[in-house]
Amino acid sequence: MYKKETFYILLFFLLLQASFAQSKFSNLELSKNNLNYKGNPENAKDRKSLAFSDKGAWFAFGLLEHSSIQGGFSGPFLMTEQNGVWLSSSFLSLHLIDDKQQEMINWKTALKSQNSYNSHLEQEFSNEKLSIKQELFFSSGHTAIQKTSITNTSSKNITLTPAFKSDIYLDNLELSVVEKSLKIVSSKSNAIGYLQFINEDSKIEVTKSGFTAKTPQLVLKPNETKEIVVSQTYIFPQYDWKKEKESISRLQFDSVLEQTQQEKENQLSQLIAKKKPTYKGSEYSTFLAKLVLTLQNNTRIAAEGLKHAGLFPSYHYEWFHGFWAWDSWKHAAAIAHVDSNLAENQVRAMFDFQEPNGFIPDCIYRDTSIEPNNYRNTKSPLAAWAVWEIYKQNKNIDFVKEMYPKLKKYHTWWYKERDHDQDGICEFGSTDGTLVAGKWESGMDNAVRFDNSKVLKNAENAYSLDQESVDLNSFLYAEKNYLSQMADVLKLAKDEKKWKRESKTLKKQIQTQFWDPSTGWFYDTSLDGKTFVKDMGCEGFLPLWAEVASSKQAKAIKDNLLNPNTFNTFVPLPTLAKNNPKFNPANGYWRGPIWLDQVYFGINGLEKYGYKTEANLLTKKLIHNTEGALEKGKSIRENYHPTTGKGLEAENFSWSAAHFLLLLLNN
């Protein structure tokens, strides 16, 4: 009887302990396998599979497909090299060798599970003798740590020799052994890689195709577990390698992983608490975890030409390894809810390149020898919105004080260099006089409204398109109001009064010049403001978001947004009205597909005018009908087909995740 009672007491405590362990990271569990990192990189530029990173690292890892399983994770995928390349299919691939020089485990048949979380990757293997667990997480923006736990599950002692070997895809690397670490030097990057075994006396040898490494022989008693911990570091010259190395040497794997898990748990808990009441269900919490992970995967610490941290639009697409202006403003507004320091730095990253006249370049890169920064155009003025959204979250008045004069200069630049007839209404344009750069400046590169545009010279290095755009001037109207609020916070009464006066004048101009009462829509106009560019596009609902439309105009726009023949498609709010003859979502880019930033502006605009029921209706259609949004393993796409919901263009896209996030949260 005593033994039976003892058994039940012990069982109770074990169950209690298991329950506590599960509930400790209950929200983190929502992130389990939210994105599919499985794949087999067959060459350096194979982009079929996604990769996991954290803490702003410029490298990432994945989970190998079952058909190509080895004793390690896929990668690393190096964003330190060119525009992202795989160093190896699995650079740190484990072999467990017995005294007959035979592999003790068949990794393919022994695979039991592979899982990813916002905090880490893990995989488990087992056969009749061994149980093996591998875990990988990022301890910093420079270093990832991998632990392999090997357990003897047999009834006899087991003796084995762990060996690692790798074949690499890149021919521009020089591998050498320095102080018991593998050093990796590239002819195409300033970043230096280091692979080192923590607290292990390993023997590393460089081979023609990569390297091999052996750790001391292990003798495992029945049920005994031993661990091998290895770090991989890729660090730029501006950072201190010795300091990073010391940090790695002191690291306790389990405690740091648990700390990372707790950070992610807290992050998700705080965000879930901020969800709008209509999105309280667990499916939306899981979706939220995927959105945060998407932004996490695209975050990069400062490196070389990029002086502050920020987010790529998508690490997964070759040409998106940089920071873009209006992408940055959108990322910052959303990431402020997650990490306000990162949000501030994302804004700073672009303003680091502000020119004396106030101009902000379109995009900037880490290594301009690969891709030069684009000074041919800027992007729509949303910087003041981003700064104000950050301030709303962290109340850091010092950041507002830092950015305010720079924002003023940028705002003023538009009226000096993009107002051809000096009537107070601006145009998109370029610095090099090309039409294509003028279209790029709008962000809507091939929008139907620009099909017949021409370029006009304003001054040296200052050109305008020959039409005045309603979205641009709505953004400028909103910016005046944000600057007014900043001036109030900074106790700049004269400035505040000036911004309010200008705002009032511009509001009247927008409501009069761009509005067509016959169709209930705002349109771009000719330079003289007398002729509409009458293609009903997403730019026409921007006055809602900017709160420049009258209540009567807002109602008419709302009716168009809810009309299935125009904007209320299967996935709502396309970039061009469905009934336009040039509507071409399959191949249209900005001629019909759904772009999440524009959808957000439309829905948020409805909310601002009190149409919350309609806003929630459109939001739920958006979330439930976009391909894979609520489905585990499917990534967030650059844009979507409005009548089928199919995901289009780049995967793992930051501003899509950012605006989905903003739609879910209370602001």
How do the strands and helices of this protein lay out in sequence?
Blueprint: H1 2-24, E1 38-39, E2 59-64, E3 74-78, E4 85-86, E5 93-97, H2 107-110, E6 111-116, E7 121-126, E8 130-138, E9 143-152, E10 158-167, E11 173-178, E12 181-186, E13 192-197, E14 203-206, E15 210-214, E16 218-220, E17 225-235, H3 241-250, H4 253-273, H5 282-297, E18 299-300, E19 310-311, E20 322-324, H6 325-335, H7 340-351, E21 363-365, H8 383-394, H9 397-417, E22 429-430, H10 435-442, E23 455-459, E24 462-465, E25 467-468, H11 470-489, H12 493-513, E26 515-516, E27 521-522, E28 524-526, E29 532-533, H13 542-545, H14 551-561, H15 596-608, H16 612-625, E30 637-640, E31 647-651, H17 654-664
Parallel strand pairs: 1-2
Antiparallel strand pairs: 2-3, 3-4, 5-10, 6-7, 7-8, 8-9, 9-17, 10-15, 10-16, 11-12, 12-13, 13-17, 14-15, 18-19, 20-21, 22-24, 23-24, 25-28, 26-27, 28-29, 30-31
Helix pairs in contact: 5-17, 6-7, 6-8, 6-17, 7-8, 8-9, 8-11, 9-11, 11-12, 15-16, 15-17
Number of helices: 17
Instruction: Sketch the major β-sheet.
Output: 8 strands, antiparallel
Helix content: 25-40%
- Supply the helix-strand structural class: alpha+beta
Average pLDDT confidence is: 95
Spans of at least 5 consecutive residues whose pLDDT stays below 50 are none
